[in-house]
Amino acid sequence: MAWPDGSLETIKTKPADKDWRLVEIADTSDNGFIHQSPDLVVMEDLPRNAMHAGITGMVQGVIREKLQRHCIPYALVVPSTLKKAATGDGRADKKKMLAHYTQATSLVNKDDNQVDAFWLRQVGLALTGQEHHLADTSTLNKVKEPEGITWQL
Predict the structure, then answer these.
(1) Cβ(90)–Cβ(84) under 8 Å?
(2) CA-to-CA distance for 67 and 126, rounded, in angstroms?
(3) SS3 76
(4) Measuring CA to CA, how many Å separate 29 from each of 1, 65, 109, 143?
(5) d(Cα 92, Cα 142) in Å, to the nearest integer?
(6) pLDDT digits (tens, 9 = 90+) for 114-126
(7) Residues 85-139: tens digit of each pLDDT
(8) Which of 37, 123, 43, 49 is closest to 84 using CA atoms?
(9) How many other C-beta atoms lie within 10 A of the C-beta of residue 62?
(10) Which of 108, 94, 99, 111 is nearest to 135 (CA)?
(11) Per-residue model confidence (pLDDT) at position 57
(12) Where are the beta strands (DSSP E) in 16-135?
């Protein structure tokens, strides 16, 4: 997760905890939403044919429920749009995403989940007319505006 203050966080859970992992994710995200008060959340859309789409869908369901309870609008970005925005290449791999992160921030981060969160935050900044580090904003018009938000591309 990339918070409004720019901090990055990975919610680490253990597969052995099974569905209790969802409770930990719910509690951690709820706490973050309370303390960080985001105006908008940008999430990566569910993978279309990935083997882990079920797990990702369950996690997204938990997060979306918390967003609804806190009245926080959210937008979904398909992976290819995120990759194109971050690197200029809609088929970029994790190494390329990490390299562009390092180039944009002068920091090294080996947690590809945090790097994705950073780029999702950058998409949110771009969509709301704020300064960002994206390489290409040409496909961001594909991101559907949530109710009450108007993109400022």
Answers:
(1) yes
(2) 21
(3) strand
(4) 9, 11, 21, 23
(5) 18
(6) 999 999 999 999 9
(7) 999 999 999 999 999 999 999 999 999 999 999 999 999 999 999 999 999 999 9
(8) 123
(9) 19
(10) 99
(11) 85
(12) 41-44, 74-77
Phi, psi of 33 (to 5 degrees): -65, -35
What is the pLDDT confidence band of residue 51, given thresholds at 50, 70 and 90?
low
Q: Residue 42 is encoded by which pair of tokens? A: 């940008």
**Cα–Cα separations (whole angstroms), residue 130 to 6, 7, 134:** 14, 17, 11
What is the spatial distance between Cα 29 and Cα 90, in angstroms, rounded to a whole number? 28
Query: Is residue 71 predicted with pLDDT exceeding 80?
Result: yes
74 phi, psi to nearest 5 deg: -140, 155
- Report DSSP state, residue 133: -
Quick one: what percent of the chain has pLDDT higher than 70?
A: 96
Q: Report the candidate in 98, 111, 99, 102 with the shortest Cα–Cα distance to residue 8.
A: 111
